[in-house]
Amino acid sequence: QALLGAIGVGEKSATVIGATFQWFLRDLTGMLGGILFAFYQGSNLDSNAKMWRLVADFMNDLGMLMDLLSPLFPSSLIIIMCLGSLSRSFTGVASGATRAALTQHFALANNAADISAK
């Protein structure tokens, strides 16, 4: 709700094109950031799974905080929204990759699917 209000939803002076562009730019930044993060850090995620899992949790909290604070800084709205999206994209890549590594670690009896389901 904070993001929608910040991009102008509910204001008569806001345009649909402006809101769409801001939302598109935010999502594009997150997608490109996730791809680049996976490219540069993908090989490190297996060997340091616990550390990257902690980093992923921290980055998720940071991304949500940026989304909540973005309406308070209207002049920097786009930058803050893009940084929040970038932070959450790092979270998605790091948490998904480390989940697989941690599941494999706990699957001692060749039961990775059972561990993942539980």
UniProtKB/TrEMBL annotation:
<keyword id="KW-1133">Transmembrane helix</keyword>
<comment type="similarity">
    <text>Belongs to the RUS1 family.</text>
</comment>
<keyword id="KW-0812">Transmembrane</keyword>
<keyword id="KW-0472">Membrane</keyword>
<dbReference type="Pfam" id="PF04884">
    <property type="entry name" value="UVB_sens_prot"/>
</dbReference>
<dbReference type="InterPro" id="IPR054549">
    <property type="entry name" value="UVB_sens_RUS_dom"/>
</dbReference>
<dbReference type="GO" id="GO:0016020">
    <property type="term" value="C:membrane"/>
</dbReference>
<feature type="domain" description="Protein root UVB sensitive/RUS">
    <location>
        <begin position="1"/>
        <end position="118"/>
    </location>
</feature>
<protein>
    <recommendedName>
        <fullName>Protein root UVB sensitive/RUS domain-containing protein</fullName>
    </recommendedName>
</protein>
<dbReference type="InterPro" id="IPR006968">
    <property type="entry name" value="RUS_fam"/>
</dbReference>
